[in-house]
Amino acid sequence: MREKKATIRDVAREADVSVATISRYLNKKGYVSHVTEKRIQSVMEELDYKPNEIARGLARQKTNTIALFIPDISNPFFPQLVQAIEKEAGRKGYKMILVPASSNEMTGVSMWESFENMYIDGFIFAPYQLKGKSIKLLKEKKIPFVIVDRAADVTSTNSVAVDHYKGAKLAVCHLFEVGCRKIIHIGGPKQLIPSKERLRGYTDSLKQFSPEHPVIHYEGDFSLESGKKLTGEAITEHPDADGFFLGNDLMAIGCLKILKSLRKKIPDEIAIAGFDGIDLTKLVEPEITTIEQPVYEIGVAAADKLIQLIEGKAEENDFLMKLELKLQARASTLGFKGKTRGKERDNDEADA
User: Fold this and answer.
1) Tens-place pLDDT, residues 187-222
2) CB under 8 Å to 47, separation ≥6 — which residues?
3) pTM of the model
4) Do domains 8-51 and 65-162+296-324 have the same CATH topology?
5) CATH superfamily of domain region 8-51
């Protein structure tokens, strides 16, 4: 027969104090003398008493639990982010729950109230473009939150972000440097800030390197399938294109797949660059050049900042934390020959 577990009443009786005193000691609320603390601790060890963490959390309306909202766990960008947040939260004594939810589900007041009733201590929003109404509601309810990735903006509230504009310029400038002269951009949904910033970086790079270059932009949805579909349309409408800058790596893989099916030589005829730095870009042939986001560092920074807000160790004022991006130049762009460069070589030989 299993031995009965000690209760808070057992501890109170053996320590010769009230249950309320034990509760004050456990929840660190109210005065308990040092002598009494030592006696309570001794009795707890003697009885092998383990406090009910959930009950303690409810008593102080805090459960050391954070919620991470994410839309698509199948996207390889997100698992590493989840792992980083969960590990950092665990290191600081917090649990993380994963909430798959579309942006449409996040507009109702009832959803926030249901999580508030569960005593979730704070939220991290990984992919969402939070509306002003939602941000206002969270602030009114004094719920700590941090937003990252697609939700974050250079002027956004409580953000951990990267400079998507700068990253796009790195990618497009690299395509010009290897010799591309007609570069197509397949971006993400136009309502998302990263999509807008990456398009702006692409457009400004064209103005800088080739003012006569037309802006050729297709709007995708960050999926592999949209990368395939839109690359097919683009190459049909612009058969002389020699470079593709994709708004994320999944679309870049889709682009690579469709171009190879059309027997295009990569990188000889067409160069491809993506954005994110997911591991899959190293598992295809050729490996894809990409703008690498510090995904793990983003997750750690988001969890750390949220816990500081929860514990009152950081100001409630808006903040922005920006992390650096890195160009990973690989075989999908290195070794590009292209028609333009070929013609230049022919002209040089003729002049000689």
Assistant:
1) 999 888 889 999 999 999 999 999 999 999 999 999
2) 6, 10, 11, 14
3) 0.74
4) no
5) lambda repressor-like DNA-binding domains (1.10.260.40)
Q: Write down the CATH superfamily of domain 164-293.
A: Response regulator (3.40.50.2300)
